[in-house]
Amino acid sequence: MALFIVTSFVSCNSDDDSSNDTSADLVGTWNITAFDYQGATSAEILGETITSSFDGIGQNFDASVVFTENPNEYTSNGSYDAVVTTTVLGESQTETTSIDNFQSEGMWSRSGNTITFDGDLLNVDTTIPVIGMEEIMNDATILELTETTLRLGQNISQEIMQEGITATVTLTSEVVLTRQ
Fold first, then answer.
1. Which of 92, 93, 167, 176, by CA, is between 20 and 30 Å from 83?
2. Distance CA 165, CA 42 (A)
3. Structural domains of the chain, with CATH
4. pTM for the full model?
5. Which tens digits make up the pLDDT trace of 107-132?
């Protein structure tokens, strides 16, 4: 399971949704070559609002995803490093975490440029002060799908209530894969 400790992938460009080819076949083996994200959190704790932001980038990838059809299954495995910069109350901290046992599997389906996973293709752990939330990449937008490149993007805005605390999380992410 790919655990990214930060708050998001590199943000998607505004032209990502309509100007890129998405007509190629998804089936095959794909190497993960980039994973970037960014986001923000806001939590109200004891009447005080605490905000944070995060930026994450994957490095040193040795990870792949295999898509099959009939049945539509995916399997991912490998390793990478996640470099995450978190800013809370104006103070920034950067941490690098090695993900040595990235593994996941499940079923996938496609409707237009949306791909849905029944498991966790990629998993982002957003660190919120006092509240922990793990966001799973279940639905993603296919930003580009050619014979050589697959780019998946995701935008999430979610409100979480836990132990009397309400938090809002926003996350924008992009993963880039290259066909083997």
1. 167
2. 11
3. 3-179 (2.40.160)
4. 0.78
5. 999 999 999 988 776 655 444 443 44
